[in-house]
Write a structure and sequence with these properties.
Belongs to the eukaryotic/archaeal RNase P protein component 2 family. With 138 residues, the chain is of the alpha+beta class. The chain has a domain at 10-99: Alpha-Beta Plaits (2-Layer Sandwich), CATH 3.30.70.3250. Helix content is 28%, strand content 29%.
Length: 138
């Protein structure tokens, strides 16, 4: 049996938007303006972007783009900062060639939590949970 690799022609970006009042219609305009500011009208046609999902509760959306235009879209997202004279920050949370990794909030995401969050430094060595250095691991 021969092994086969499945390649995706698209990449999917999970993006958080920080804007006063955002709707799906405004989001479509933001994406078009973002690409037009960086690459002009030809950039919109060449990138083949589409908003697949918009979650208004946490202001995140999934943007699909062609594999070859990923770096261009990433650049446009990073440089975009104003929409209709109001600050509008777009933050890329995850990027994947598949939709499945975007469904799990913990998988492959950038953690803003300290890796030492559950370690407490304790100078009292009388506690049974402490090791000889006075570090208690919860």
């Amino acid at each position: 049996m021969e092994k086969q690799t499945i390649n995706s022609n698209y990449f999917y970006l999970l993006i958080k938007v920080n804007h006063q009042s955002i709707t799906k219609d405004k989001l479509d305009l933001i994406v078009k303006e973002m690409i037009t500011k960086c690459y002009g009208d030809t950039g919109i046609g060449a990138s083949d972007t589409k908003i697949l999902l918009f979650n208004q509760k946490d202001s995140t959306f999934i943007l699909r783009c062609l594999k070859g235009s990923l770096s261009s879209i990433w650049t446009a997202v990073s440089l975009f900062h104003v929409y209709e004279t109001h600050p509008c920050i777009l933050e890329i949370i995850k990027v994947s060639p598949w939709l499945l990794p975007l469904s799990n909030p913990d998988r492959f995401s950038i953690s803003k939590r300290s890796p030492f969050q559950n370690i407490n430094i304790n100078n009292n060595n009388n506690n049974n949970n402490n090791n000889s250095d006075g570090i208690m691991i919860e």
